[in-house]
Amino acid sequence: MIKNVKIRLILILIVLIASIYAFWPPQKKIKLGLDLKGGMHLVLEIKVEKVILQEVAQYAERAKSLLSEKKITAGKIYSVGEKVVVEGINENDYEKVRSLFKDYFSREFDFSSHFGNGKVTMEMKLNPIAKKQIERETAQQSLETLERRINQYGVAEPTLQLYGSGKDGVPNEIIVELPGVDNPEEVKSLLKETASLSLNLVYPNAPYGVSKETIMKFFKNKIPDGYMILPVENGGYAVVQKAPVITGKHLTNAKATLTTELGIPKHAVSFTLNSEGSRKFEKATGENIGRRLAIVLDNKIISAPEIKDRISDSGVISGNFTERDAQLLALNLRSGALPADIVILEERTIGPSLGWDSIQRGIKAALLGLILVILIMLFYYRLSGLNAVFCLIINLIMLLGALGYFRGTLTLPGIAGIILTIGMAVDSNVLIFERIKEELRLGKTIASSVEAGFSKASLTIFDANITTLIAAAFLYQYGTGPIKGFAVTLTAGLVANLFAAIFVSKTVFQIVLDKVKIKKLSI
Fold first, then answer.
1. What is the pLDDT of residues 262-301, one digit of tens each?
2. Which end of the chain is more exposed for a tag (fewer CB within 10 A), N or C?
3. What is the DSSP secondary structure assignment for residue 223, as one 8-state letter?
C-alpha cells in the first residue's frame, strides 16, 4: 500500500509540475479571445452568383474551341445566366456535336435541343450538383484566401470559420475575429477587396474610354455575344470579352515595384504565372498581336496596352497607385484573388479597455465562486472538505496547464466554463463523500468505506463527465470563437476533474489512513 501511494504521489507531482510549466508565465502562454483582448468581429457574406456566371462563360468559350478543333460550324455560341446556348447547328452535324459535348460537359450540364428549318439549337443548363460544387469550392477558397491575407497582414491569432447556409445548403458566410486590431478600416478594406484580377481581350477596333452612349451607337445598340461593357479607371467605358484570357488563380507571385512612364517613375505591381497561365497567356498574346488586352481589377479596367509580341510567364499592372496601394494590391494578389465579392453583414469593434474590464469581472466572479465553494465544503464536510479543496486547486492548475500547452484561447464564456468546472469538480467530491457516508452507516470500517465509496461513485462520475464532454465537443465543432472558448475550458476542466476527484482525492485519503490511526472519519 505504501509503495502504491508513493507512485501515486510521484505521478501527481509530475502532472502538477508539467501543468505549471505549460502555463507559466500565463500572459505569454495563454491567448486571450476577442472579448478579452479587444479587436474586431465581422460576419462576411460570400456572393457566389457572379462566380457561377463566369464559370458558365468559360464553358461557352470551351465549347467554341471544341467545335473549332473538330471543324464543325455553328451559328452562335454564348452564355446566358446558367446556360450555354449553341445556335445554328446543322442537323447533319447534330449527333456529332451532341456526342462531343456529352463527353466533355455531361457532369456539369443538362442538355436540351430544339429543331427547326434544318437547324438545331442546343442548350446546356448547369445542373444542381455542379452548381453546389462551384458554391462549395468558392466558399472554401474565400476562407483560405482571407486566412492568407490576414496572416500576411500580421494579425495575431485570428479566427475564421465558415458559417450559415445559402439557398443550396452550402455555407455562404464567414465569421472573422481579429484580436488586437488597431486599424479596423484598413483591415476591412483588405477583407472586402476582391482583388479579382483578369486579363480580357478588348473588342477589335471598338472605341475605348468613351461614354456608354458612344459604345452603344458603335454597336448599333447590341453588344456582341460573349462581350460586356466595363468602366475604365481613367474615365469612360470599353467592351471586353467576357471569358478572360487568364485570372488571378493563374498567378504564382506578385510584388510592388516601380515602372517608368514617359520618364516618370510610377508605382506598379509585377506578377508571374503558373504553367497553365503561361500556356494560355502565350497562346492568346501570340494569336492577337496588335489587339488591346485589358487588365481588369475588381471589374474595372486599370489599363489596356496593345499586344506587341508573344508574352509567356509574367506581366506588370500599372495604374494610378500610391506606394501603399501597390503593396496592398500585391498582398491581395499574392495571397490569392477572392473568387467572389464579399459583403460585411455584421461588424463589432471591442476596445481593449472593455476587454480588460471583462477580465477583471470574470476573475472576481471565479474567485467569489471558489471562495463560496470552499466555505461550504469546509462547513459541511469539515476536515474531509480540505481534500475537496485540494483537488479543486489541482483541477484549476491542470486546466490552466492544458490551456497553455494547447495554446487555447481564453474568452469570457471560457471564464464561465472555468466557473462551471469548479461546480462540477465539487459535485464529483460530493458524490464520493456521500457514498462513503452510506458505507459508514452500514457499519463498515473506515478503510473499506472509502474504498467502496470511490468504487461505486466512480462509474457515476465517469458517466456524467463523458456525456458533458460529448456536448462540449459539439459546441467546439459548430460554435464560433467565444463558444469555442467555453468548450475548450469546459473540456480541459472535465478531464482534470476525472483525475483530481478520483485519483488525487483517493490518494489523499490513503495517505491519511496509512499515516494516522483515526477512529472516526471527519466527513
1. 677 888 878 788 888 888 888 888 889 889 988 887 788 8
2. N
3. P
The pTM of this model reads 0.57
- Enter the C-alpha cell of residue 270: 509585377
CA 227 to chain centre: 35
Which helix (H) or strand (E) element contains residue 313? none
Q: Domain of 217? A: 193-347
The count of structural domains within the chain is: 3
Residue 129 amino acid letter: I
Beta-carbon-side half-sphere exposure of residue 66 (alpha carbons within 13 Å):
18
Q: Is 83 helix (H, G, I), strand (E, B) or coil?
A: strand
Instruction: Judge if the upstream peptide bond of residue 25 is cis by omega within 30 degrees of 0.
Output: yes
* Three-class DSSP labels, 186-201: HHHHHHHCCCCEEEEE
Assigned domain for 184 exists: no
Please, which residues bridge with residue 159 across strands? 177
Clarify whether residues 308 and 381 are in a common domain.
Answer: no
C-alpha cell, 169: 445548403
Residue 235 DSSP SS3 = coil
pLDDT at 208 over 90: yes
pLDDT at 523 over 70: yes
